[in-house]
Amino acid sequence: MNPAFSAAHLRTFLPLFQRIAGKLSDKWKGELMATGELNTLLNRWLSRATLDIIGEAAFDYDYNALDGGERSAISKGYEDIFQDVEYLPGKATVLFRASWDYIPMPLLKLIRFIPVNPWTRIRNLNNLFREYGRQIIREQGPNPEPEKQGASKDIMSILIKANASEDPKTRLDDEELVAEMFTLTLAGHETTSSTLTFLFWELSKHPEYQARMREEIRALRARVTARGGNDFTIEDLDSLTLTMNAIKETLRLHPIIVGLPRVAEKDDIIPLSHPITSTSGEIITEIPICRGQVVHVSFAGYQRLPEVWGEDVHTWNPDRFLNIEPGKQTNVGMFANLMSFAAGVRACIGWRFSLIEMQAFIAELVENFQFDPPAEKVEIQRALAGVIFAMFPVVKGKADEGGAMPLKISLAQ
Question: Of the candidates 8, 1, 106, which has an alpha carbon nearest to the alpha carbon of residue 352?
């Protein structure tokens, strides 16, 4: 799939990102013209917008999530799986997760058929997506025109080529195609929309920084207009330092995937860059790892290390990226020394896609709208959602109502 996510090819998606961001902007303006003020669950708007994007960019398919209509059932299905969130997992949940490695695989596979949530919701979504996936495959057709097949590098085209391959080792049947599409859709839209949700929440709490971002964006808009342009280019978006730093800081403080397990392929010894002291007082400078041992890599833990990020690690402070002390600089991850997209050969293949998408949305929405805390005072917490082990916002005391980020939106002055 690498050609579909190359830096050169991703540039072609920018007009799509800007079109969907503009569509969301127009909908908010329509709501504001009617009511004068918009108190809404921001996470739902952004989830629908990014779902429309992944549908078009990956599969040339319109989910019609922002507009609703007959195809919006898929959007509702994705929203449902984030109704089952937990701020603190119970003892039974912790025990169950810890025992996974010791449950025979045939028995473990039966768990997905348990008739209780969140398993029921994820099963319903999977069944719904199978219908959509098969429809997409039918619309793409089994034999795309040669000239289109050779020129196209979108994800669906690559999957179709694999499906038509004569090599049995690389051939994908329709069920495998649908499974790949389901995974790409889930990973490709909700992580981005949730990061944007946390970012706008932080902007609502930091109006001074929000004003600085808006000033920077509007100054860029004036320069683009002066040169006779209409839309921002990739280079324009990359020049928005305050916006990029806000993205970096949100990825640091609010990673949607807080960590990943990895299995050691051989015995090894891992040196520690920062020694730790055990409960017995022993200074530990390295950790022995045995072949086959599962190592949980904590992205959230690394991204809150004072030794790397400073003493204010629990504070949202985008300006930290303006002057990172040389002694604290690290070289990990795919972007900005962050682990939010993981690292290595199994890192997130769509990290550039997500960044450009976020840049386009922030430029459009911050230029036109003011984000403030909701009229009703609430406390937001991060909680794990369903069975996908990703972080989403919930209102404290109302986790049973699912993911929610209430914000007040008004036209920016």
Answer: 8
Q: Is residue 387 part of a domain?
A: yes
> Measuring CA to CA, which residue among 374, 284, 291 is closest to residue 38?
374
Task: Examine residue 310 and state whether it is found in any structural domain, yes or no.
Answer: no
pLDDT in tens, 86-108: 556 667 767 776 777 778 878 77
The per-residue pLDDT of the chain, averaged, comes to 85
Q: What is the CATH number of the domain that holds 167?
A: 1.10.630.10
**Is 175 among the domain residues?**
yes
Is residue 199 within 8 A of residue 246, CB to CB? The reply is yes
Measure the CA–CA gap between 107 and 284, rounded to whole angstroms.
39
Full domain range(s) for residue 354:
2-254+346-411
Q: Is residue 106 part of a domain?
A: yes
Which CA distances in Å does 169 have to 162, 164, 165, 180? 10, 12, 9, 16
Query: By three-state DSSP, how is residue 216 classified?
Result: helix
Predicted TM-score (pTM) of the model is 0.87
pLDDT at 251: 97
pLDDT confidence tier of residue 193, bands split at 50, 70 and 90: very high
- 250 pLDDT higher than 90: yes
**Could you tell me if 363 and 23 are in contact, meaning their C-beta atoms sit under 8 angstroms apart?**
no
Inter-residue contact 186 to 78 (CB < 8 Å): yes
Q: Are 224 and 240 in contact (CB under 8 A)?
A: no
| 290 is known to lie in a ligand binding site | no
